[in-house]
Amino acid sequence: MESARLEKELIADPSLWVLLMRLGPAALHVAAFSLVEDNSLIYRRLPLNRAAISVLKATEDAVYDNPLLLSDFKKVYCVVESPWVMPVPAPMVSDNRDAAAMFNACFDPGGKTLIIDRLPEPNAAVITGIDSGVDRFIHRTFSNLSVTGHLASLCRYFHLARSNSPKTYVNFRDSAFDIVIIDGNRLLHANTYSYTDVADAVYYILACRNRLGLNAETDELLLCGDAGPREAVTPLLRRYISLVMPVIFPPRMFKAGREAMKAPFDLIVTPLCE
Fold first, then answer.
1. Which pLDDT tens digit goes with each residue over 192-217?
2. Residue 95's pLDDT band (cuts 50, 70, 90)
3. What percent of the chain has pLDDT above 70?
4. Is the model's pLDDT at 109 over the cut of 90?
5. Cα–Cα distance measured from residue 207 to residue 212, given in angstroms and rounded to the nearest whole number
6. Of 264, 269, 273, 271, which Cα lies nearest the Cα of 23?
7. Helix, strand and coil in the chain, % to nearest 5
8. How far apart are CA 254 and CA 262, in angstroms?
9. Start-to-end C-alpha separation, the chain
10. Vertex 241 angle, CA 204 and 254, to 5°
11. Which of 22, 36, 229, 256 could form a disulfide with 172 if both were Cys (CB 3.0 to 4.6 A apart)?
């Protein structure tokens, strides 16, 4: 849902509400829900101004144009989608200096701040680069703030399912998708891919599974995210994989409000991982 401005008057007592934000390359996705009232969830997609002089200015404009976001919420989560992402084994980033060294070896570190999400259960970490100006802005603007990379949010949530066999999860958006493969407490694969044709998505999914030796007859493939690409790839994937099915939408967030189903999946599941 777009366009409708988020005014402060929408919520009487924000101290009883949680704010979720997802900062992506084209839009700031926002959801807010009450901790004491069902069917309260509000969702908006706020397009970022591509003509802005910087990603910082575009982000500032999106926030300041929607006064509700500046309310004093009980808790604020910000999920960051970034092209600078590195999943690594946890022992390789025992401290922040190790994480910075690994990141700098793969990406230009200029103008970036690192979000280091440590995932104790699968014994992994996800390093995400965020524009340093944007990072400073969100930390000085929002209280009770928790910032996480979008891929880390998915890894945390999918790990909660716990299984004795490998499971492949794919989260779709308009022009990108995430593949997370987990076997028990082991994170086998986590990455984001861009695509322009669903056939490309099918190829990447099959290639990831084949590289890890997953069984096409018994190892499940679960899909979530935007309905359009999910529905397009499902019949194609079922030609090669027996168990292709949707991820069950989290009941707690459905109870918060039906608008949750319109929001990005990695955003909606973030508060469930604490």
1. 999 999 999 999 999 999 999 999 99
2. confident
3. 99
4. no
5. 9
6. 264
7. 35, 30, 35
8. 11
9. 27
10. 85
11. 229
The yes-or-no verdict on residue 80 having pLDDT over 60 is yes
Q: What is the DSSP secondary-structure string of 159-206?
A: HTT--SS-EEEEEE-SSEEEEEEEETTEEEEEEEEE-SSHHHHHHHHH
Tokens 């779709």, residue?
172
- Give this prediction's pTM: 0.94
For 41, 44, 84, 114, 203, the CA distances from 56, given in Å and listed in that order, are: 27, 20, 17, 16, 35
Structural domains of the chain ordered from first start:
162-246 (3.30.420.260)
**C-alpha–C-alpha distance, residues 198 and 216, integer Å:** 19
DSSP calls for 56-96? HHHHHHHHHT-GGGGS--SEEEEEE--S-EEEEEGGGGSSH
Whether residue 221 contacts residue 157, with contact meaning beta carbons closer than 8 Å, is answered with: no
> Residues in the chain, how many?
274
